[in-house]
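Troubleshooting entry. Yesterday's outputs looked truncated, so today I'm pasting the complete records for two proteins to confirm everything comes through intact. If either block looks cut off, that's the bug. Protein one:
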Amino acid sequence: MRLCGKSACVALLLLSIGARAVRAQVENPAVVSGMRPANAFRPDDTAEGTASLTSSLLSLALPGAGQVREGRTRAWAYLAFEAAAWTAHLAEQAQGRRYRTRYRDFAWTNARVRTVPREDGDWAYYETMSHWMRSGAYDRDGAQAGVQPELDPTTFNGAVWALARDIYFPPGSPVSEGDPAYTRALAYYEARAYSASFLWDWSPDPGAQTEYGHLIDRSDAGFRRATIALGAVFANHLVSAADAFLTGRGPEEPPHISVRPDLTSWGTRWTARIRIPLSR
């Protein structure tokens, strides 16, 4: 079973509980036919169910805690996995932040039009800088009143203005600045084009833009791996809880649950496997 997130983990838990129900039906055929055998309920069933639920909740809070309560030695495997996953998450998150600082400083030094004070943009802004050589001007003629949009479509701001005209200007008809269509197009431009505080130009050194892209990639990879590690933490909690619940019910052969990382060409894939014995 491939672990794809919270929904997969919940499905794993439900599958485990469902398998227990199947096992109960196999052992008590009368239940299937709707007849309740005389010994279907035993006083110790309630205590056993309460104990297994308690162990499951303990493991949900801290993986391995329920197994410690039940005296299972694999508790330490869950605890070790928890520590390793958190360590990986924090380390990769720190790398993502470190390279984020580096690519922001690199952009300021090599491409951005200097303004005082410096303003840092959001992730989308820096990602846009890696794809566009120049931002273009925001207001191409500051001497005139209002904003005069960039006209060069090879720049980012110019491309935004070209898109705004395609959306709002009627085809083949001239539009003056006082026209409502022009007003709507200008509002579109002002909302999406980058203002004077965020302009950039890589054209003096195109190679710098390539190096900048590598820094962004390394930052993104760090944050992506941190997210994967955090997902493994949640999976460890749910799998440990399911394991504690099932083994707390006392089957003849305890179910076997394992979680392991597999390296693929797309990154790390976490896989969970469960084996639940059924009486025959």
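Protein two, checking that the full record survives here as well:
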Amino acid sequence: MGYQTISLGLTLTVPTASTRNWTQQLLTGAWEKISEHDHSGGGNGAQLTGAAFAPNFGLVQAGVQTVVGNNQSLTIDFNGGNIHLVDATAATGTLTITLSNPTAGAAYKIFFKNPATALTVIWPASVKWPQGQAPIWTETLNAVDSVDLYHESIAGVYYSDWQLNYG
């Protein structure tokens, strides 16, 4: 395996682009120490707090958007934050989602509060699902499902994943 070593007072070995299965390398050695402590240059070794992150990496909840009625559209504007809650408990039929104002490399989470009956959610073509399978929502009133999105700016797509039925 090919690696590139960077030394800035702490040595971190980073796999080269052609290396496969490099996750274990990052999880061992110094990575846990790096990810848990403040590296402001002061050498204080303090643990990271939410304020230590740059604004684009902090997660901000945008609030609750309520969808009611049959065959509705919803725009989720990421300028409002990285975390969104969609209350779809009164929605029926089809819900068409539009995603706007993504930041390159940003991660987003959308929680859905579900109706008691089947709701078809139509996502933009730019959202790519694992094995091409979009979520099939939980059909229990007030059940919560979620979608994670990562916006990749070069191809202009969202790589996504989903979790169902937070009980």
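Both blocks look complete. Sanity check on protein two: Strands lie at 3-7, 11-15, 61-77, 83-100, 107-113, 119-122, 127-128, 144-152, 157-166.
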